[in-house]
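Module 6 notes. Inverse folding takes a fixed backbone as the condition and produces residue identities as the prediction. Think of it as a translation problem where the source language is geometry and the target language is the twenty amino acids. Below is one complete input and output pair. Work through it position by position during the lab.
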């Protein structure tokens, strides 16, 4: 059993939120390798062999969480690229317009660029993640939970969706307001949207930060219209990279990642929240997590990974997943309907 020595500001969370089984100690003395918050954290793994949830135990209390985000900002702007990036973006647009029906995205890069993106799984998933794999829906209402620098929210808004965002980062919310976006500060629960408000709710790498992922999923379901779609991504605890890099795996990110899901735990939790047509897959976007894990293992700054390292490792990761199992990628994608 994952024995918790409770300090001030921490809570004993000895049982799995997905299946209720007790947790076994997986790691001790995990350190914050990104923002150097002082402390050592323990992580449990669910004892149910069908379940693949990992979580911090003792768990930080909600009051303690803001302290872990003192230097953590989500509003970093996307770098402005040169000519090559412009051609790539046009190719991405061309691919998305053909595959997902976004005619407003047609670019001048031509069919060669589109064909390249369509043929390389890592690029294909990177492209589709920009629109959360959502087909064109004129006038559909979309909520993004944790919109960060607002690039995706603005993009989806420009493509015909009526967008609303919620975000914890005050500066991000201010910047989104400057861009004319409807953005609310706080959690999805704080925003208290009326029931059945949205056709789609999307969220990228947020659920692992939340103290109550089930409550979050239930709230997403409540604000979705009947048959509305939830699409979210999160690190995959059952990935090949986690097996290889162990404590150096970038997906752990203590103490900010409170729950790290495997495919089974995420699927079960979405069903518990009342979603149907629940599907969990892994994306081919393993490059960043693998490149940053490799740097952590070498004692280097994980943020310093180059585009070349990321793209090379994405292809290697995708290739390895052919042999290591279809759900061994570094990132999970949950898609389900309310
Ligand atoms: Zn479990």
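Target side of the pair, the amino acids:
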């Amino acid at each position: 059993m994952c024995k918790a020595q409770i300090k001030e500001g921490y809570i004993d969370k000895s049982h799995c939120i997905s299946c209720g089984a007790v947790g076994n100690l997986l790691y001790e003395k995990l350190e914050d390798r990104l923002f150097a918050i002082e402390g050592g954290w323990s992580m449990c793994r669910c004892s149910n062999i069908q379940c693949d949830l990992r979580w911090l135990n003792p768990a930080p209390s909600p009051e303690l969480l803001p302290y872990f985000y003192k230097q953590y900002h989500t509003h970093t702007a996307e770098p402005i690229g040169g000519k090559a990036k412009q051609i790539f973006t046009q190719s991405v647009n061309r691919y998305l317009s053909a595959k997902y029906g976004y005619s407003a995205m047609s670019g001048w890069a031509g069919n060669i660029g589109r064909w390249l993106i369509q043929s390389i799984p890592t690029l294909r998933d990177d492209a589709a993640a920009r629109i959360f794999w959502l087909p064109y829906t004129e006038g559909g209402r979309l909520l993004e939970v944790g919109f960060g620098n607002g690039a995706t929210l603005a993009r989806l808004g420009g493509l015909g969706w009526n967008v609303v965002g919620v975000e914890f980062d005050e500066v991000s919310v201010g910047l989104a307001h400057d861009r004319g976006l409807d953005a609310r500060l706080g959690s999805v629960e704080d925003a208290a949207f009326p029931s059945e408000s949205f056709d789609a709710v999307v969220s990228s790498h947020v659920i692992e930060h939340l103290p109550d992922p089930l409550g979050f999923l239930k709230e997403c379901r409540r604000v979705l219209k009947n048959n509305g779609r939830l699409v979210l991504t999160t690190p995959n605890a059952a990935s090949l990279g986690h097996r290889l890099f162990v404590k150096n795996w970038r997906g752990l990110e203590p103490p900010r990642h409170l729950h790290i899901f495997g495919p089974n735990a995420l699927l079960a939790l979405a069903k518990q929240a009342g979603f149907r047509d629940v599907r969990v897959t892994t994306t081919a976007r393993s490059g960043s997590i693998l490149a940053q894990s490799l740097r952590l293992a070498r004692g280097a700054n994980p943020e310093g990974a180059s585009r070349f390292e990321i793209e090379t490792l994405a292809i290697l990761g995708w290739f390895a997943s052919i042999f290591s199992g279809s759900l061994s990628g570094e990132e999970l994608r949950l898609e389900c309907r309310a």
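Reference fact for the lab report: Residues 16, 18-19, 21, 46, 48, 51, 53, 265 surround zinc ion (CB under 6 Å).
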